[in-house]
Write a structure and sequence with these properties.
Elements: E1 12-15, H1 31-36, H2 38-44, E2 48-51, E3 55-56, E4 68-72, H3 79-91, E5 95-100, H4 110-117, E6 129-130, E7 151-154, E8 159-162, H5 177-191, E9 197-200, H6 221-231, E10 239-243, H7 249-256, E11 265-267, H8 290-303, E12 311-312, H9 322-325, H10 333-345, E13 350-354, H11 375-386, H12 391-401, H13 404-407, H14 438-443, H15 448-461, H16 463-467, E14 469-472, E15 480-487, E16 490-497, E17 503-505, E18 513-517, E19 529-531, E20 536-540
Parallel strand pairs: 1-2, 1-13, 2-5, 5-9, 9-10, 10-11, 12-13
Antiparallel strand pairs: 3-4, 6-8, 7-8, 14-15, 15-16, 16-20, 17-19, 18-20
Bound molecules: 1-O-alpha-D-glucopyranosyl-D-fructose and calcium ion.
Length: 541
């Protein structure tokens, strides 16, 4: 594996623009708002921003339904603002990674508007159309990930079109060469603006074969990515990260082995599925088994070897807050948030921090569906009501897993609306912003923020964190996740107690230096000690 890529040493921060910082009091975060917070991000130490979509969009799925890839959503600002963001970030050593959503467009994209009008339009075949079956019924039983059939009857077209997400997100037909070329042209438009790369939304779906019921990992997927690489970012040393729900280590190597000339890395979701009941959906919860988490992470840490690269994340705009999920957002919020950060950031791969994670933001419970904005949660609510679930049951699932948990506005200070907006926020704030906010975190030298800052600094200063081998310690209590990183004769031990209880721990070796510790009173004895609730540390052996 080449060792010269900036993205292997990078730490990326994800911004969900709608919820980050409003600059004009309309209650919606915007690009000027982001620019005003770049100094904060520089202080944290991150070197890249993954910006969730800022393109023109009717917002059926908050920007993941794009109606014009080459202009900016009015609420977010202008193309000039976007160019300022790229250059202001650059001044601070931060690259902007754009969200590339090309599995589908909005149904309000001019391509789709033209496509549905006439079979003769050159855009018709940009999308996936099928006739009704003989008896008028659906082409097949493919389901949308947002509920219901994936086929929508279009009166004007006189055919069904495919939408793996909402009805307002028709799927693009990647078999059409002109469509592929149009996507590459659009990517080059952004590359020419000086961006640092792309995060590729549900990219593993573009090789779909709907008639065969194949959606993920279709037969032509990798051909398309190789073609895209060559036509756009190849040779430009950009970061490209694919969102690939179905990736195994073997598949991840196909994508990210540099010799294959596809992507830098992918987001794999195996760890994310561990609290879902087998064969059910994300809404059907089971408790997390730490042993499974260890198994999944060590598999990914060791199996890619030199033939691929990992991305590391706990959170994004689709997932509940990690401290509420696998930490403890009550008594041990600070300790457990730091524990989770230490555990993840000392692994091999490129870490991603989702906005607010660095101050330990928590899930934001709702008591009624009217408080929910997210299309996925809303669709599921009405579908399950019909299936006979109780409102209470459904709300329990939404509070645990709903996407709005991650989307409540960023908590900047203890003033009105947490300093996010002077107007009415588009989505209610988490009421805990008076305690949990950036201003308070910056004032407290023991805050979660400074743990993230320190972890980023350790990564920048120590090649071991980037390149070192990973080895899981297997002789520990179930709740203790411990591993060793080694590089050129140096060894670091990382220990994390996943339990609210005291847990015994012992291993061979002596501590040469404590590099980071989530309890402030320093002593660490490796030969027979007791870890405190959620205690975590990194030591040089
Ligand atoms: O997410 C892909 C995706 O499959 C999600 O819908 C996922 O199933 C669910 O959110 C897990 O909780 C991407 C984007 O990240 C998401 O925000 C978009 O809604 C979706 O694609 C469609 O573009
Ligand atoms: Ca605004």
């Amino acid at each position: 594996m080449d060792k010269q890529n900036w993205w292997q040493e990078a730490v990326i921060y994800q911004i969900y623009p709608r919820s980050f910082q409003d600059s004009n009091g309309d209650g919606i975060g915007d690009i000027k708002g982001i620019i005003s917070r770049l100094d904060y991000l520089e202080k944290l130490g991150i070197t890249g921003i993954w910006l969730s979509p800022v393109y023109k969009s009717p917002n059926d799925d908050n920007g993941y339904d794009i109606s014009d890839y080459e202009s900016i959503m009015d609420e977010f600002g202008t193309m000039a603002d976007m160019e300022t963001l790229i250059s202001e970030a650059e001044k601070r050593g931060i690259k902007i990674i754009m969200d590339l959503v090309v599995n589908h467009t909005s149904d309000e994209h001019p391509w789709f508007i033209e496509a549905r009008k006439s079979e003769k339009s050159k855009y018709r075949d940009y999308y996936i159309w099928r006739d009704a079956a003989e008896d008028g019924s659906l082409p097949n039983d493919l389901k949308s990930l947002f509920g219901g059939s994936a086929w929508q009857w279009d009166e004007t077209a006189g055919q069904y079109y495919l939408h793996l997400f909402s009805k307002k997100q028709p799927d693009l037909n990647w078999e059409n060469e002109a469509l592929r070329q149009a996507v590459y042209d659009m990517m080059n438009f952004w590359i020419d603006k000086g961006i640092g790369g792309f995060r590729m939304d549900v990219i593993d779906l573009i090789g779909k074969q709907p008639d065969k019921g194949i959606t993920g990992n279709g037969p032509k997927l990798h051909d398309y990515l190789k073609e895209m690489h060559q036509a756009t970012f190849g040779g430009k040393n950009l970061l490209t990260v694919g969102e690939t729900w179905g990736a195994t280590p073997k598949i991840a190597k196909q994508y990210s082995n540099p010799v294959n000339k596809e992507l830098s890395m992918v987001f794999q979701f195996e760890h994310i599925g561990l609290d879902e009941a087998e064969g059910k959906t994300k809404w059907d919860l089971i408790p997390l088994e730490i042993s499974k988490l260890k198994e999944v992470f060590s598999k990914w840490q060791t199996e890619l070897g030199d033939e691929g690269w990992n991305s590391l994340f706990w959170n994004n705009h689709d997932l509940p807050r990690i401290v509420s999920r696998w930490g403890n957002d009550k008594e041990y919020r600070v300790e457990s948030a730091k524990m989770l950060a230490i555990l993840l950031h000392m692994m091999k791969g490129t870490p991603y921090i989702y906005q607010g994670e660095e101050i330990g933001m928590t899930n934001s419970p709702v008591t009624d569906i009217q408080q929910v904005d997210d299309i996925e949660s809303r669709n599921m609510y009405y579908e399950r009501l019909e299936e006979g679930y109780s409102k209470a049951e459904i709300l329990t699932s939404i509070n645990a897993k709903g996407r709005d948990n991650a989307r409540t506005p960023m908590q900047w200070n203890a003033q009105d609306n947490a300093g996010f907006t002077t107007g009415k926020p588009w989505l209610a704030l988490n009421p805990n912003y008076k305690q949990i906010n950036v201003e308070a975190a910056l004032k407290d030298k023991n805050s979660i923020f400074y743990t993230y800052q320190k972890l980023i600094a350790l990564r920048k200063e120590n090649p071991l964190v980037i390149w070192g081998e990973f080895e899981l310690l297997t002789e520990t209590e179930e709740e203790v996740f411990a591993y060793v990183r080694s590089y050129r004769g140096e060894k670091w031990l990382i220990v994390a107690n996943f339990s609210v209880n005291e847990t015994p721990f012992s291993t061979e070796g002596t501590v040469k230096e404590i590099l980071i510790h989530n309890y402030s009173d320093g002593q660490i004895d490796l030969n027979g000690s007791t870890l405190r609730p959620y205690e975590a540390f990194v030591v040089k052996l």
